[in-house]
Amino acid sequence: SGTPCCFHTPTADMSANDADLCPGYSTEAKTTSTSIYEEAKDLDEYELNTMTTLRTKFSGEDRAISDTYALQFVRGYRSEKDAEKVTIEKYSEMLDTRKKYGIDTILDQRPEFWEEFNTVRKLGVLGRTKEGRPVFYERLGMYEPQEGNKLGFDKVFEGHIRMQEEMRVLKESMSRKMGQRMYKHVVVLDMNGFGLRHMSPDVVRKLRKLMSFDSFMYPESLKHLYIVNAPWIFQKAWTMVKGILHETTQKRIKIVGKDQKTILRKLTRIVDLAQIPTWLGGQNEDDICGICSENFEEVWKKARLETCEDMGGQDESKSCRF
């Protein structure tokens, strides 16, 4: 890949002016000298060897892939039979997919439809868990399929990829600031408003594609997924899509009904009430940022500069791993 593998926890301080950042995109998080994240554990012999294999085999092809992102594949497929072979195959497929959709450079400029995407897809980062992980919310019940069709699924898909890459960069930026590796986040899907219009074959097919893409391209990214305000009809829809998720991922998902006290009891186990949005009974009055916010652009700019400095001062963003 042109530079040796680091295989260490990033320690550089992002030095971002967090007071100016959208709360969802602040790199501020709990900092401690003792590791608080399971991801921060040292690599064992298998992980080191497999990382070395990946970096050697795909040298020159994976310059945009950070050590943290590569490690997610090593750990995500470790339980598979013939784990190293499966990991190499999945890693290769990931690189091909990134090339197919231009993902390595997708953050370099805003797509012209980004504001319309944010209007149609009500999603984004807001607040932190008690241990400092970012929380991603999607108000899926408020999604109107007709508006999505008007925007076009190609644009919905591109915006979705952009959101996933923003999340990945945010977590790696936070890791650098805290001095320890953290690549898992929490997701809250608010199903309030979910109905039959969300269960058409076309909507289910598109949802399955998005879920399958995330599961394949970003292994080990999910800490917890809470599906809240889920009506009875959602159970049928869930049976149609959950099968594409790995069993490990399914175990991290909790479906909660429409009782607000139950929702808050579940969420406040890991998120302070002050961090939970008001529309779920919390005290956080901030809005979710969506994609392409000014605040994320600042995070991305600092991330590229710092990563290039770590690589010896290279100024070509495409050659810098992040």
What key phrases describe this protein's structure?
single chain, 322 residues, alpha/beta, 11 helices, 5 strands, 8% strand, globular
Mean pLDDT across residues: 86
Listing every helix as H and every strand as E from the N terminus to the C terminus, the arrangement reads HHHHEEHHEHEHHEHH
How far apart, in Å, are the first and last alpha carbons? 13 Å
Helix fraction by DSSP (H/I, runs of at least 4): 40-55%
Low confidence ranges = 1-21, 313-322
The tally of beta strands, per DSSP, is 5
Strand fraction equals 5-15%
Oligomeric form of this entry? single chain
Structural class given helices, strands, pairing? alpha/beta
Shape: globular
Radius of gyration, taken over Cα atoms and rounded to an integer in Å: 19 Å
Largest sheet: 5 strands, mixed
Q: What is the tally of helical segments?
A: 11
Q: How are the strands ordered across the major sheet?
A: 1-2-3-4-5
